[in-house]
Every structure is written in structure tokens, then in C-alpha cells.
Write a structure and sequence with these properties.
The radius of gyration is 19 Å and the shape is elongated. The chain starts with 8 loop residues before the first helix and ends with a helix. The chain has 2 domains: 55 residues, Orthogonal Bundle (Arc Repressor Mutant, subunit A); 107 residues, no CATH class. The protein is built from 10 helices and no strands. With 186 residues, it is mainly alpha-helical. This is TetR/AcrR family transcriptional regulator. InterPro entries: Homeodomain-like_sf, HTH-type_TetR-like_transc_reg, HTH_TetR, Tet_transcr_reg_TetR-rel_C_sf, TetR_C_16. Keywords: DNA-binding. Pfam families: TetR_C_16, TetR_N.
């Protein structure tokens, strides 16, 4: 008699999160069903409820993103801070089906709770932190300009599918962005 197949809880949970990020990024919260997510992950839909509790809780887990390396130190200047965020924009994950948690929020921004979370993470989090790194007047404005640049780049790559940016040499993009951010330092 064969022993029942053991499930790898961590691998199943990870597969569900990956599938959810892709589905939510492409279709938003309202256009995504738990059966589709489960099918993409190759598991039964009941596992979503076992591991996450609800579709809403899965969505919340999918929105959780890691803080990019290099953002913690307060001595990091605006150019280095922007470069750390640029790593997220240029990552394969940001361009591969647009599954980065920020894109999930953008696709589901019609929901008030998602807009509030998007505002909190972008404005109260990253942009406020970046503004603290600029000296002089208009620090908040300069931070928002950098944020608009990086967010726009992410949308161009993942949503619009622009022809040049996704194929551009990352070091060349990095140098151009660094020059733009450096121009905003003064």
C-alpha cells in the first residue's frame, strides 16, 4: 500500500502566493477567483483557505513586499536610495508578468482599502523617507518627482509593455536615472 503523498507546506504556500501575484496583477482583486489561483498553483482551492483564511487575506499576503536592500541607512543619499528602488523596477519580477506587489495595488486601486494602502506605502513610506534625504527647499516635491519617475518606469515595463525600457541595458538605465536624481539634489 502506498503512503499518502506528503504536501510541502512552504512550497505550496509559495506557489499560491506566486500564482496570486500574477493573477491579481493581471486582473485585479475583483477579476480574480480563488479557483484560478489554485489551478495556476496546481492545488485544490481549499488550500487557499487553509493557508490564508480567505481571498482577502491571500491578497494582503500577496501585497507584502520586502524592503529593498540599501534603504535602511539614513546616511544613504537620494541617488543611492533611488538606485535601491530602481533595482525593484529593473528586476525580472517587475517585468515578468508584472507580479510585484505594487502592481497588484495599482491594478486593484479602484478599491478604497487598496488606495489607502498604496498611499501609505508609497507616500508615507518610500517618498517620506526619500524626502528626508534631500537637503534644502522642496524636498517633498523632489522626492515625489523621483517617485513618479520610478513608478512610471515600472508601469511602462509591466503594464504598457514599452519597446525600449524592458530591453535596455540595466547599467545604462541606472546611470541615466542617477543623473536625473542627482540633478534634483540641488
Amino acid at each position: 500500500m502506498n503512503a499518502p503523498k506528503r504536501r510541502d507546506r512552504a512550497a505550496t504556500r509559495s506557489a499560491l502566493l506566486d500564482a496570486a501575484r500574477r493573477r491579481f496583477a493581471e486582473h485585479g482583486f475583483d477579476g480574480t477567483g480563488v479557483r484560478e489561483i489554485a489551478a495556476d498553483a496546481g492545488v485544490d482551492a481549499t488550500l487557499i483557505f487553509r493557508y490564508f483564511g480567505s481571498k482577502q487575506d491571500l491578497f494582503e499576503a500577496a501585497l507584502t513586499s520586502e524592503v529593498p536592500e540599501g534603504l535602511g541607512a539614513k546616511e544613504t543619499g537620494p541617488v543611492a536610495f533611488a538606485d535601491a528602488l530602481l533595482n525593484v523596477v529593473l528586476s525580472e519580477r517587475a517585468g515578468d508578468g508584472g507580479e510585484h506587489p505594487l502592481l497588484l495595488m495599482l491594478r486593484s486601486a479602484g478599491r478604497p482599502e487598496v488606495r489607502a494602502r498604496l498611499h501609505e506605502e508609497v507616500c508615507d513610506g518610500y517618498l517620506a523617507d526619500l524626502a528626508d534625504r534631500f537637503d534644502g527647499e522642496d524636498a517633498a516635491l523632489r522626492a515625489e518627482l523621483v517617485g513618479a519617475l520610478l513608478l512610471g518606469m515600472g508601469v511602462m515595463r509591466a503594464v504598457v509593455g514599452s519597446p525600449v525600457l524592458p530591453e535596455a541595458d540595466p547599467e545604462r538605465v541606472r546611470a541615466r536615472v542617477a543623473a536625473m536624481v542627482a540633478a534634483l539634489e540641488s
